[in-house]
Design goal:
By secondary structure, this protein is α+β, with helices and mostly antiparallel strands. The protein is built from four helices and 14 strands. It has helices at 8-25, 49-62, 90-103, 138-143, and strands spanning 30-32, 40-43, 64-65, 81-84, 114-118, 124-127, 148-155, 161-162, 165-167, 172-174, 181-185, 199-201, 204-206, 209-217. It comes from Sphingomonas parva.
């Protein structure tokens, strides 16, 4: 069993995890999804149709092939397109403020919102959003805010077929629905990386899928 003994950072992650969980459980229109070993919620109609359309237009304007923090040698691992949404656009500020208000996490702990587009056949194979601490990139992540805690993902459109977000270890599969927000904790109840948070963006079979993702860090993002 995981513990937090001797690890102040894990103790903080445990506290913020429990605090956000209880906050979201009390939020109207937010439902906790039954899941094995994972705290995960859906907030229905979190964005309006107009807000989704505005963000989609910005993703289409700036999208480029998606990258990976660390290459694994599989060219088919992540085949989507993505972009960092600019806070000079009022709609992005409005969306970010709504996400921050839902989680209650200090805004400075949040990374820049990333927009993503999946055409037919494109996917993001199973991965974790938390940082693996035995990697070359870990020291850089430590200096820029430390471990990722919560992930907020918003579906910007309905998808004709495919494109579900799948958590194979937690036994959860979520179909994209325009305006719905998906929120989950990448840490377990002890503030340690939670392997039940493994998830994938399944291949789109028909249509195009648009989402945005915002990650939160244990410390202010971009600072030591």
């Amino acid at each position: 069993m995981s513990t937090v003994t001797g690890d102040p950072a894990a103790f903080y992650r445990m506290q913020i995890g429990a605090w956000v969980k209880e906050r979201v459980k009390r939020t109207p229109n937010c439902l906790q999804i039954p899941a094995k070993g994972l705290d995960i919620f859906v907030a229905r109609d979190f964005l309006t149709a107009r807000e989704c359309e505005q963000v989609i237009a910005l993703i289409d304007k700036d999208r480029v092939p998606s990258g990976l923090l660390s290459s694994n040698g599989d060219p088919e691992f992540r085949t989507s397109e993505s972009c960092h949404l600019k806070m000079s656009d009022a709609i992005n500020v409005r969306v970010q403020d709504k996400i921050n208000a839902l989680t209650g996490i200090q805004p400075e702990h949040g990374e820049t919102i990333q927009g993503q587009r999946y055409a037919p056949g494109q996917q993001f194979k199973p991965h974790h959003d938390f940082f693996h601490m035995n990697t070359e990139y870990w020291e850089d992540m430590q200096r820029s805010g430390g471990q990722r805690t919560w992930t907020a993902m918003i579906f910007l459109n309905d998808v004709e077929a495919g494109g579900q977000t799948w958590f194979p270890e937690a036994n959860v599969r979520v179909t994209p629905r325009r305006g719905n927000l998906l929120l989950w904790n990448n840490m377990d109840e002890f503030g340690q990386p939670n392997h039940y948070s493994l998830h994938s963006g399944m291949p789109v079979e028909a249509g195009v899928k648009y989402v945005i993702t915002k990650w939160y860090r244990e410390r202010p993002w971009g600072r030591g």
